[in-house]
Amino acid sequence: LSNRVTITNAILVQSPNGPSFTSIVGGGTNLSSTSVRCVYLSAGGQLSGFALTNGNAGSLGTTASQYGGGVFVEGGATLSNCLITGCGSFVGGAGVCLQSNGWVRNCVIASNRSSTGGGGVLMINVNAGGVEASVIRGNTAGGVYVNGAGLLSGCLVVSNFSTGVGSGYYCVNG
Fold first, then answer.
1. 66 DSSP assignment
2. Cα gap 140→119, rounded to integer Å
């Protein structure tokens, strides 16, 4: 799995004009080795004001490569003021995967698709962080899936769909 943008330092990458004008486009399909995630964000890095579209996390490789077609956030990183849409994943967190610690703030996470585990957001043992003041809507495989811990605060979670568990919100092992 490759990433269009990889941020592994404590820097801020910010769009000057917001998500209506600045996009990061992934590629491939969510069932292949040609999958391209939009953004990998860690180590205190920050990304703000982008549209993340058509990102995909595939079925091959490490567990981390199967989650977060739009963005994979860990290591105290923060995603803010972004639109995440039209992304896919094989396992979960098609739009956003938060692992260990990190933040998603003031984002719209819409129309993403996964086979299981949160088409919008997947949180895996997020002991310091979560999703705040965001809209999570129209995702397939559920809106928010929490495995372990994860904060969801001040969010609108609406019109998500799942044939399994938790169309809106589902928490396991927490």
1. G
2. 5
Count Cα atoms within 13 angstroms, Cβ side, for 85: 14
Rounded Cα gap, residues 163 and 155, in angstroms = 23
Buried b (16+ CB within 10 A) or exposed e, 48-84: bbbbbbbbbbbbeeeebbbbbbbbbbbebbbbbbbbb
Q: In this structure, are residues 120 and 142 in contact, taking their beta carbons and an 8 Å threshold?
A: yes
Bridge-based pairing of strands 23-25 and 108-110 is unpaired
Closest by CA position to 12, among listed 107, 97, 81: 81
In this structure, the number of other CB atoms found within 10 A of the CB of residue 115 comes to: 18
Gap between the Cα atoms of 11 and 119, Å rounded: 28
pLDDT averaged over 10-residue windows placed end to end, the chain, 174 residues: 95 97 89 86 97 89 83 97 95 93 97 92 93 98 94 97 88 85
> Side-chain half-sphere of 77: how many Cα atoms within 13 Å?
27
Burial of 6 (0-12, 13-18, 19+ CB in 10 A): middle
